[in-house]
Amino acid sequence: MDGLLIDSEPHWRTALVNVFRGLGIEMTRDMAKQTMGLRTADVVAYWYNIYKWEGPSVEEVCDRILEEVDRLVWAEGKIMPGVNELVKWVKANNLKLGLASSSPMSLIKSFVKKIGIENELEALRSGSEEAYGKPHPVVYIETAKELGLKPEECLAFEDSFTGLLAAKAARMKAVAVPEEADRKDPRFCIADVQLASLLDFNDEVFEKIIS
């Protein structure tokens, strides 16, 4: 969801920088990018193991980050190009649409509402509510189950390598749509197709994936 449907990834990084600065930690945007695709609790736990700050608990820091991200996205977030076109394509082909995100369900529902696709989704799953987060495949497996499908019958769209690993581990076909700075990352070669934008997805690409 983040970075794929809405340009929230930069706001996540800003939120991390802002919140950690309040803890006396000079977090950079490049440092924040290292944990892209992970659950918020896993992100905070990762940095706590390095910096061992005093004061707010991991849970309290998570809450601060989530509040800041939600505020920033509603104030400045924009829908990514091709989202509406992809939703229309899914519906025109009588396919099911679900969302599997590492974000907490509260943020998923908030962002989905901002994007305007809350009535188009037939399944919503949060990795924060599963035993393991991405790159473990459980959130994708459970999303497929909620859609009434087998994972191998699903096509996942991902912008992060962590999420792509999760989709492929679930035995799904996968389309990678990494941000511009990551498009030459060789790790994305595990995707069935890599696109520069969701706008590039069409019938021809779909046929190539399933053939």
TrEMBL record:
The keyword Ribosomal protein does not apply. The keyword S-adenosyl-L-methionine does not apply. One of its GO terms (molecular function) is metal ion binding. It holds the Pfam family HAD_2. Gene3D superfamilies: HAD superfamily/HAD-like, Putative phosphatase, domain 2. Keywords: Hydrolase, Metal-binding. PANTHER family: 2-DEOXYGLUCOSE-6-PHOSPHATE PHOSPHATASE 2, PSEUDOURIDINE-5'-PHOSPHATASE. Belongs to the HAD-like hydrolase superfamily. CbbY/CbbZ/Gph/YieH family. This is Sugar-phosphatase. It comes from Sediminitomix flava.
